[in-house]
Specification:
Blueprint lengths: L1 H24 L3 H31 L11 H37 L3 E5 L5 E4 L1 H7 L11 H4 L3 H9 L6 E4 L6 E9 L3 E8 L1 H37 L4 H33 L8 E3 H16 L4 E5 L4 E4 L2 H17 L6 E8 L5 E7 L21 H6 L6 H11 L3 E7 L3 E8 L4 E3 L6 H8 L1
Parallel strand pairs: 7-9
Antiparallel strand pairs: 1-2, 1-5, 3-4, 4-5, 6-8, 8-13, 9-10, 10-12, 11-12
Helix pairs in contact: 1-2, 2-3, 7-8, 8-12, 9-10, 10-12
The protein binds adenosine-5'-diphosphate.
């Protein structure tokens, strides 16, 4: 109430001062009254000017500070400014929180799409925009079902039962999406999307793999079961019995090879990357491969092994032996009698190591090249099986090469032959210290 009495005092003072000033000029009561009125008018004008300043500031309060006047207008401006600044601070904090929240949603690997009434798009993060093929700015307020027309999605959104997610092809046709809807607020929806392409592919691969393994095992098992029945029910001569046992042995060996290859693959997938500091003499690996190739070829091919005993490679000896063994084994199996098989090692100018297995065999049509390293992929199934193939050899070789930071290169032409190369990075290849020169040693000793 202080400001009220202050204002009243100012008005009274102005009236008195006006009256006093008028009485100096004339002593008539009228002129004193007139002087008082002028004083009151001056006080009102000053007051109006202060009020106007406050009003002007209230029009654009954010641009500058409130006028610092004394009295009623000063106090009004002061309280208005304080309330305003508090409000601004709260609004800023809220905005910051919202920005943080949206940034967190943006950082999510999943898609977030917020829908308002009538499924109109309110907001979406970049991942959801990518999943649904939306433009977050341009498509705001659009009905989502006008833009995302996948029937499974539209049906799912409209039916209103969202306990389970729905799966459908990504609108841009690049993969598979899994979408889950949750309702919230006032007829609003949160649409969560996830790209499950890789998961689906892995699942399909797993199914194929199980189907392939079952298929591979079923054939020798059926043959074995047939032979067992024959042995049990038919009176066989000694020669027939031996032949049946021989065939049974072959089928059992086929299953053993398959199981061994499957175990190799499982080990490759489940173990850490080969060490980069365990050095193996490449000559030793090739020597072993040469013995195996000679046994498999049994003199039907010309075998040439070009060894370099001065080089070592870093990695897992068993894995590398298995990869080289598979390539050499294939070369022998897919090269007709009289053909030539060359296994060579060389260090490329960039320091990378290259082990090549070249044959003059049947070769492979170009269209098969990209799929050769897929599990159980065969160009000619009967030839592969007849020669004891499992369809896993190249898959193992590629896996080993990649685990060593390298790759498997394939060149092949039908009727001319093939070259399979395991290329290892320079970091996994080193030259052995050259053996000391005995003459130099003798000279040093003297
Ligand atoms: P498989 O056990 O059937 O030989 P691989 O994975 O080792 O399985 O090879 C896949 C397929 O690639 C083989 O079935 C064969 O058709 C073809 N192939 C592999 N190596 C050679 C080669 N040296 N010459 C011709 N064809 C080959």
């Amino acid at each position: 109430m202080g400001w009220l009495s202050g204002r009243a005092a100012i008005v009274v003072m102005a009236v008195l001062l006006g009256g006093a000033a008028a009485s100096l000029i004339s002593t008539s009561a009228l002129s004193v009254l007139f002087g008082g009125a002028i004083g009151a008018a001056c006080a009102a004008a000053a007051d109006a000017a202060r009020g106007l300043r406050v009003l002007r500031w209230l029009n654009h309060p954010s641009d500058r500070d409130a006028p610092r006047d004394a009295g009623l207008w000063g106090e009004i401006a002061y309280f208005a400014e304080r309330a305003l600044r508090t409000h601004e601070r709260i609004a800023q904090q809220e905005q910051w929180r919202l920005a943080q929240f949206l940034a967190a949603m943006e950082a999510s690997p999943n898609g977030f799409l917020l829908l308002g009434a009538n499924d109109r798009i309110e907001w979406c993060n970049a991942v959801a925009a990518e999943h649904f093929g939306l433009d977050p700015q341009r498509d705001r307020d659009q009905r989502v079902t006008n833009l995302v027309r996948a029937p499974a999605f539209v049906h799912y959104l409209q039916q209103g039962r969202w306990e389970e997610s729905v799966t459908f092809p990504e609108p841009r046709g690049r993969g598979t999406l899994s979408v889950l809807v949750r309702s919230y607020g006032d007829d609003q929806k949160l649409v969560l999307s996830q790209d499950i392409t890789a998961r689906e592919q892995a699942e399909a691969m797993r199914r194929d793999f199980v189907a392939n393994v079952s298929h591979e095992i079923r054939t020798p098992l059926t043959v074995l079961a047939g032979f067992i029945e024959t042995l049990a029910n038919l009176p066989l001569s000694e020669v027939e019995r031996r032949r049946v046992l021989l065939l049974m042995g072959q089928q059992a060996a086929r299953m053993q090879t398959l199981v061994a290859d499957l175990l190799t693959l499982a080990t490759l997938e489940g173990s850490p990357r080969p060490p980069a500091d365990r050095w193996i003499a490449i000559g030793r690996l090739l020597a072993q491969a040469e013995v195996d190739a000679a046994a498999l070829s049994a003199g039907r091919h010309t075998l040439q092994f070009e060894r370099d005993d001065a080089v070592q490679v870093a990695g897992n000896e068993n894995e590398l032996a298995s990869a080289i063994g598979n390539l050499v084994n294939n070369a022998v199996r897919y090269t007709p009698d009289g053909g030539r098989i060359t296994v060579a090692w060389q260090v490329r100018p960039d320091g990378a190591g290259e082990l090549s297995v070249t044959d003059t065999g049947i070769g492979i049509e170009r269209e098969h090249h990209a799929r050769l390293t897929e599990r159980f992929y065969r160009v000619d199934s009967s030839r592969s099986r007849d020669t004891g193939g499992t369809g896993l050899g190249l898959s193992i070789a590629k896996h080993v090469a990649q685990r060593h930071g390298g790759e498997l290169e394939i060149r092949s032409e039908p009727g001319k032959g093939s070259v399979f190369r395991i290329v290892l990075p320079a970091t996994r290849v080193r030259y052995l210290e050259p053996a000391p020169d005995p003459r130099k040693l003798a000279a040093d000793a003297a």
